[in-house]
Amino acid sequence: MCGIVGLLVKKPELREQLGELMLPMLIGMTERGPDSAGMAVFTAPVADDRRKLSLYSGTGTFDWTAFENAARATLGAETILNVQANHGVLETAAPVAGARQWIRAEFPGLHVLSAGQYIDLYKDIGAPAEVADRYDFRQLKGSHLVGHTRMATESAVTPDRAHPFTAGEDWCLVHNGSLSNPYQIRRKLEPLGIEFETDNDTEAACRYFEWRMREGDNLEAAIRSGFEELDGFYTFLMGTRDELALVRDAFACKPAIIAETDDYVAISSEFRSLAKLPDIKNAKIFEPVPEEIYVWRA
Amino acid sequence: MAGLAQAPQIAADSATFDLSRQALRDLNQFLHTGLGGVKKVKVLNPDGAHNIAVGVDAPIDIEVDGHAGYYAGGMNKLARILIRGNAGPGLAEGMTSGTVHVKGFASVSAGAAAHGGLLVVEGDTSLRCGISMKGIDIVVGGSVGDFSAFMAQAGRLVICGNAGDALGDSLYEAVIYVRGKVKSLGADAGEEPMKEADYAAVADLLGRAGLRHDPKQFRRIASKRELYHWNADANQEY
After folding, report:
1. What is the pLDDT of residue B2?
2. Which residues of B touch A177 (CB under 8 A)?
3. Do B48 and A252 touch (CB under 8 A)?
4. A286 in contact with B at a CB cutoff of 8 Å?
5. pTM of the entire structure?
6. Check: CATH 3.40.190.10 for A2-38+138-297?
7. What is the least distance, in Å, from the CA of A271 to any CA of chain B?
8. Which of A184, B106, B183, B197 has the fewest Cβ atoms within 10 angstroms?
9. What's A220's DSSP letter?
10. Are A92 and A79 a contacting pair, CB within 8 Å?
11. Residues of A in contact with B169 (CB under 8 A)
């Protein structure tokens, strides 16, 4: 079991309140996923020639100041670092691939959670309320977000196996369910040079979709090809720089519910996590049907 | 939801629980052991909580003012439960008697494995409505999702809207009445002519559900009984 939450605000003035609106949704999914939680938020973008990398330093102590100095020396003096507990968001004009390579070589304990112009990502083990508190989710601002509460079933409880998973830039995915052919997907993608960081089944789906989009599929076409290639149970919620997308497998074994008003689209595994949203009594509430692709634009 | 046990508000023969302040367990314990002379129980702010009014065994009226989560009205016996909202997965699972009536829609597996009573969903239901039903009557005002009445053993499922794929797959002796389109029938489910008893049954069930349709618009789906006996020549194709 796991919980998924997604929120997209339709009015620019609500972007300031994104985290505050979301917080009861995430905490409301604690019983479905008490062991880890994560949140990807799509913020105002950095300049076209710059990128953000969300970094996780692990549970030990980490010298962020030394890292920041080294980053400025190597990636350019304009590089900026914002640290929140053991997460940091590095903003740089250096190319993402080079920055990733440098971090891996020089700071092997540092894990790159996401990269892009819009996405910030936080994920860690612990109860959703603790994780939200640790990274101050209440303060998150942006147009849309994708969150997850995890009850691990198929791989260990570690921060890197928490959701969301990312691949490429400004792309993330969370999953409620379990895939039965993640290794088949890996065997298909690894010879193409696509690297995996964990043994988690959701990572396989994430890298599969991102690969399809890099090959030229739009999001919908990528998801459609997933109907053929991904075997198992899933409700997937995905985020791109300007979209939220939701899809359920043909058997709809894993729940999902959507509430929409003039102000927001809110998605969750269960209504109880939507119950505290403003004006929920007047929201249009519906259950997404299987194998239909729902996309909302920010 | 507050963790503190608080007594319900009781006036004459009715009681009110507010689940934004009172624990669900207190509600269910009251329904099981604390009713006394109470005949009506109102539940406020259900907010999608699981297991609302499960296992009730008393001829009382329960009104849930909002959306219910998983298993609402499960294992109900005798009670008349009205949900003024939507219901989550497993609505009225295992009900034996009484009624569960949902004004909105219901998620997957509504009425699953239920032995008796009447389940009414005014809106749509998701997949597997009436899966393995064993004697319950279900009336759906809207449409039902795929695999509805899968392995349904006894009882009647009335669908005022459309049905998804594999309706009535591996049916036993339950009977389905459907008014709209059927995307596909499941293995061993077949359409049969409506007889006077069928029109009367549909009229009766629609009347009890408070839904107005002409019974003449419904078609009967029942088991072709070809799966009842092993057929070595079927070559695993059904």
Report:
1. 42
2. none
3. no
4. yes
5. 0.94
6. no
7. 5
8. B197
9. H
10. yes
11. none
